[in-house]
Amino acid sequence: MERKTVNGFSRANHVGITVKNLDKAIQFYEALTGVKVSNVDEIGGARMAKVQGLDKTLIKYANLHLDNLNIDILEYVEPAPDRASYKNNQISAMHLCFEVDDMEAALQRLKAIGVEPEGEPIVFQEEDGLKAGFGTAVAYFQDPDGTNLEIIAPQGPFKRKNEA
């Protein structure tokens, strides 16, 4: 099957998550997703630093390939990283949302790897002020470095077009 060339921004390739310790982060994300990283490597040098707006850089990284998105797990060796902390309501805060078919099974997986949701998971109902999407379940949690993560069992307009 021939792949259509995309010149716009209609397809995502990866999300990068900067972590304190690459080995620990690999353990977490492999346990969370059930997927093994495809490679572990290092990248750096003047050209990489320049493209990132840095003076110098050395990055240890791993790639995790999900069905529809790749996750780059990045440990900056140089320059030494600063710790950021974002709540979901802060401007420029981002989160990564994992789509699941069974919310209860996903919550059990979190519990099995020692992760507790930020609050009680919810299922959207009419009183939540939505026009549609009733039955969509969501829960928020964090990785060991404080990255905001979400799980969603989508219904209605929260489902992708090819899944409706």
Question: Describe it for me?
Answer:
- The chain is an alpha/beta fold.
- It has two domains: 12-81, 2,3-Dihydroxybiphenyl 1,2-Dioxygenase, domain 1 (Roll); 94-164, 2,3-Dihydroxybiphenyl 1,2-Dioxygenase, domain 1 (Roll), CATH 3.10.180.
- 17% of the residues lie in helices and 28% in strands.
- The protein is built from three helices and eight strands.
- It has helices at 22-33, 46-51, 103-112, and strands spanning 14-18, 39-44, 58-65, 70-78, 96-99, 122-123, 137-142, 148-153.
- It has a four-stranded mixed β-sheet.
- A hairpin with a 4-residue loop joins strand 3 and strand 4 (70-78).
- The longest helix is centred in the first third of the chain and has 12 residues, at 22-33.
- The protein is globular, with a radius of gyration of 18 Å.
- The model has no long low-confidence stretch (mean pLDDT 90).
